[in-house]
Design a protein that fits this description.
eleven-stranded mixed β-sheet, 15 strands, Glyco_hydro18_cat, 9 helices, hydrolase activity, hydrolyzing O-glycosyl compounds, GH, glycosidase, Glycosyl hydrolases family 18
Length: 312
């Protein structure tokens, strides 16, 4: 089972529909920078662990993540909503990796007041996922700490400018070797995580446990778990504990489901395993505008002891 079949459509759109632009030019699209004074009017704090959801913004609204609350207590179902996805691209002129936001991702960021802040005001954390883009650049082939720092700085600048809550790493579709770029090495991803954590000491860094990065999580006496907050399984419909040394059970998500294709019985079974084994994350992928309160209720009853109320 592939981890993210929709991502192929996403990256092909990026390649064919839009000329590559740098992060600097993306920032100019925003009328005003974000501030750090966003009020939090509600909370998602609840016993039973965190629910994390990826939203494919090429075709779906981030606001869908705010439509589901616990019937008992009223807390939001989702604790973390992830914008899927920006890209790590490669500039052949400057020989540098750079952050690329396609038009749909840019639309979410530039219009953060209507697409991100409403979720944050409900207590949710909003992350930006970073995905490879078939150009040879990835998290695992920076050849020096300086190059890793350069990309980390772009990520940190984006989080700061748009007042996001963090960055999610997804090491897929990099196509290491393209554009004459090197294959993965052992130091690159750890360097990148360490540099980003230094730049974002209080923000969230999460790791979608997949790809070459999943086997390159330690170097020079340091490990990914020293720098990331969370990691979750990447194969939908399965239960597998990410092997990220340094993270406790509360910060790991072995259960991963595709909202639109994983059966309700499987979702419930994975929820029971998550609860019984004491893990703190449950991962959902591909939230659309379809009312999935019945499915979510079946899982929420296990994790949180409450059904789910859907509010369009």
């Amino acid at each position: 089972m592939t981890s993210r079949f929709h991502a192929v459509q996403h990256v092909m759109l990026v390649i064919t529909a839009v000329a590559a632009i740098s992060f600097a030019s993306c920032r100019k699209d925003a009328a005003t920078p974000a501030t750090s004074s966003t009020p939090k009017t509600e909370t998602v704090t609840k016993a039973g662990g965190k629910s994390v959801v990826y939203v494919e913004v090429n075709s779906n609204s981030m606001l869908n993540a705010g439509k589901y609350t616990l019937t008992t207590g009223g807390q939001q179902l989702f604790d973390i909503a992830i914008i899927f996805a920006a890209n790590i691209n490669y500039n052949t002129t400057t020989s540098k990796a750079y952050l690329y936001n396609n038009p749909q991702v840019s639309n979410v960021l530039v219009n953060r007041a209507t697409q991100i802040v409403p979720l944050q005001n409900k207590g949710m954390k909003v992350l930006l996922s970073i995905l490879g883009n078939h150009q040879g650049a990835g998290f695992c082939n920076f050849t020096s700490r300086a190059k890793a720092h350069d990309f980390a700085q772009q990520l940190a600048d984006t989080v700061s400018y748009y007042n996001l809550d963090g960055i999610d790493f997804d090491d897929e579709y990099a196509d290491y070797g393209n554009n004459g770029l090197p294959q993965p090495n052992d130091s690159s991803f750890v360097f990148l995580l360490e540099e980003l954590r230094t730049l974002m000491p209080s923000k969230i860094i999460s790791f979608y446990y997949y790809g070459p990065a999943a086997s390159r999580l330690s170097y020079g006496g340091k490990k990914a778990g020293d720098f990331v907050n969370y990691s979750w399984n990447a194969i939908y419909g399965t239960y597998s504990v990410p092997n990220v040394a340094g993270l406790t059970k509360a910060n790991l998500g072995p259960a991963a489901v595709n909202i639109m294709s994983t059966s309700q019985s499987t979702c419930v079974n994975l929820a029971n395993q998550t609860k019984n084994n004491g893990y703190g994350i449950y991962l959902w992928y591909n939230l659309t505008s379809t009312n999935k309160a019945t499915l979510f209720s079946a899982v929420s009853n296990v994790l949180y002891g409450s059904a789910i109320t859907y509010t369009p």
